[in-house]
Design brief:
single chain; alpha/beta; Rossmann fold; eight-stranded mixed beta sheet; seven-stranded mixed beta sheet
Length: 365
């Protein structure tokens, strides 16, 4: 009589092991320890380069600043900005102390921000001055007039009772707002072990990000994603591209969307790759970043790749360092895929499909 062997678990089974059960903050520290001087974030246009160690120190200091103004694990902090460097530092600073980051579409108008502020129970909102035709500070003054008359840190808004802080993502000072340098200065008065203490109040199954998505159903929904969700989803997206620490990935896609902050940031974190950031999509700047930084991968929606292929100076850029990347976000025309594989050397380009509620990718081809 033979004994049947128990089949090995496969992806989708409850017993199938995930890549990691760590929080994002703990996982990042482990990656820093492996090679602290490896480049993590590069902004070619800003001449800004952060190693894993540099980024770890800045996000630690910012996390202590957030603790200094009273943010605690489980509180909600919104970020309303384009792909500036401090979008990333707030993402990791909040993850390190268990604060839930609420991603806000940078092209939201006043009524859309009003909806998200109320619906998300946001305690703090981080903003830049303006983007395209949207004047962020003007909208804040109209929606939260108390910021003009009340001392920062003591905000009491009639319309948004949960909202206590407005943070300006820059060095400039604005009435009723903290600036990033001020937060970092306040954080110096918070003991370093406060970060470890904060970590005792959450784990990898805690919600760490809320992303608003409207899909096909009118009002946007706040999708609640955990450390476990986005860290592991990012890892397998990186695996699909065979990323390693030698890869340099150009990201011109928005961070507020899961394309940027999961397919991009998390896939790079889990493979210790380097991110080459383009703040706002411009085909010429993307091509220049690939050329200058010897990028091995680039992300984009089909229209981005089409704009790059049709750029009048396309032939002047050396793209031979490219190998892989992701085209996603809308149906990918086969002819565009073939052209990208041929003219941009991306023989191993992948297509990802999913939705925000699934963290987001569930197929990659």
């Amino acid at each position: 009589m033979t004994t049947e062997e128990t089949p090995a678990p496969v992806p989708g089974d409850p017993d199938y092991p995930l890549h990691s059960e760590k929080t994002i903050g703990r996982y990042f520290r482990d990656q820093v320890a492996i090679d602290p001087d490896h480049e993590f974030v590069v902004y070619p246009d800003r001449m800004l380069r952060w190693t894993y160690k540099d980024f770890d120190e800045r996000t630690d200091n910012l996390a202590r600043g957030l603790l200094a103004i009273g943010l605690r694990p489980g509180d909600h902090l919104g970020v309303w900005a384009r792909n500036i460097p401090d979008w990333l530092t707030f993402m990791y600073a909040t993850a390190k102390i268990g604060v839930v980051m609420v991603t806000v579409n940078p092209i939201y108008k006043s009524h859309e921000l009003d909806y998200v502020l109320k619906q998300s129970d946001m305690k703090a909102l981080c903003v830049i001055d303006a983007y395209r035709d949207v004047d962020y500070l003007q909208i804040i003054r109209e929606l939260v007039p108390e910021t003009l008359t009340q001392q920062r840190g003591y905000l009491e808004s009639e319309a948004y009772p949960c909202l206590k802080h407005i943070i300006y993502m820059g060095p400039e000072k604005h009435r009723g707002c903290y600036s990033v340098p001020e937060l970092i200065l306040l954080g110096q008065h918070v003991p370093a072990d406060a970060l470890e203490e904060a970590e005792t109040h959450f784990d990898n199954n805690s919600v760490i990000m809320m992303q608003y998505t409207s899909g096909t159903t009118g009002f946007p929904k706040g999708v609640m994603l955990t450390h476990r969700n986005i860290l592991n989803n990012g890892f397998y997206i990186g695996e699909g591209q065979k990323l390693t620490a030698d890869d340099r990935v150009t990201l011109p896609v928005p961070f507020f969307h899961c394309f940027g902050c999961v397919l991009g940031v998390m896939a790079n974190l889990t493979h210790r790759s380097t991110m080459i950031i383009v703040e706002d999509f411009d085909a010429g700047l993307v091509l220049q970043a690939i050329h200058k930084e010897r990028a091995t991968a680039v992300y984009g929606v089909p229209t981005m790749f089409i704009a790059e292929l049709n750029h009048p100076d396309f032939d002047t850029f050396d793209l031979s360092s490219l190998r892989t990347g992701i085209m996603a976000g809308s149906p990918c025309p086969p002819e565009t895929m073939r052209e990208v594989m041929d003219k941009m050397y991306m023989k191993e380009i992948t297509i990802c499909y999913g939705l925000t509620e699934t963290s987001p990718v569930f197929t990659q081809t």
